[in-house]
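Sample 3 of the quickstart, ligand beta-D-fructofuranose:
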Amino acid sequence: MTEKELELRKLAQTETEKKRPIVESDPNRLVYHVMPPVGLLNDPNGWIHWNGVYHLFYQWNPFAPDHSTKFWGHVTSTDLVHWKEEPTALVPSEWYETHGCYSGSAIDYNGKLTLMYTGNVKDEHNERSSYQCTAASADGTTFVKHGPVVDQLPSGYTAHFRDPKVWYEEDEQAWYFVIGAQTVNEEGRVLLYRSDDFEEWSCLGPIAGSRLGGLGDFGYMWECPDLFSLDGTDMLIVSPQGLEADGMNYNNVYQAGYFTGTLDRRVPQFKHGAFTELDRGFEFYAPQTTEDADGRRILIGWMGVPEQFEANQPTVSYGWVHALTLPRVLNVENGALKQRPAQELEMLRGEGVHATVTAGEAPTTAEKISGKSAELKLSQFDFHSGQAFEVLIRNEARIKYDLSNRVLTFERTGEDDKREQRQCALADLHELRIYIDTSSIELFVNDGEEVFSSRYFADVEDESIQFKSDGQVTCHADFWPLT
Ligand code: FRU
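Result:
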């Protein structure tokens, strides 16, 4: 370990221990989500099920709730529900990562938990360089850096070149990674790299991007790509920057979504259909997936968006900001993507309440259905004389389905205390499964057809959950407090 690394590690540790009590006194701290111990968290990184343990890393600034530097925080779990804080995995100590150990992924290479990430460097003129680096660990906690394996940009691309997602192709006995990129004409791209020995990497070229493969103008930079096959199709997940809002789509500052199609590694080319957003909520970006030992494709996202409701979230005054989403299992069924919360989350459930809810024009509550950390599943909707059905959580977040236009709306108070909403079209309402965790809500609609992930900030004393309609609507409620 270099002296610089030792020094940065010590600094981060001192800062963390100093600020931890203040952070932990925040009433908006979450109960069952991964959060930074102090400071800012952004992208999930290095997400892998390795030797029977889930390892999850994240972009982390231990010094302040802002983006000024990036370390890799690390947590582990054996059940996807309870997470243990591990020693910091990467600190930006070397010449090839002075301005941050940026996002990347993990793979088992020769029995070692091996990370591949972007070393971000800015010189005195603020000129950026990007190095794709590796670091490996035999025990899963202490990482030895191997430095850059790719230190040149391909011609025609800017230094906005980052976030390698690596995998192994059994049939070719070769490694591949996809990486987010920007052309000199400011078009977003995903590039494919290949290696026979995990040391020498060659750039095969772009596989998808703005103004490629039938897409029109589709953003000036594509971040955090992820590519895998799922239930007989190939899927490319990416976070494009620079899309314009279009009706109910693309309303956040930056988007995260997917294309399904076919990857031809030899051309290389990813032939794909239309882009679909993965999440309809206010806070979701830069997701990453891994396949676990059970063969499940599990996605975790950043419950935040760059430059959107970051500086003014109430948690900032307690010295921290952002969290990761719950783990979701992905499947493609009848051509449609389904995202379902990992079943293990049922472990959090306390004693259940099962009731029929009758919503009318005056807001109503249901006995024992209230709380700040809970799972609420609503099903068997019957729109007797009503056109609209609403759930109001802690007098702050509103979920509303309107049968007259078949639109689902999530509403909350956000930046500058303004009420704001996100929506999606929904032909029918069968199920609303709502994970409430103090200051976050993840809403899974119709068994994973749509998801809305958002932060919300309610009166800390308020634990109410109310139902309302413009006429009469009944449904079945299953409710569990989560601890
Ligand atoms: C996405 C991102 C990545 C980058 C990282 C830096 O949120 O901008 O492209 O590697 O965050 O923290």
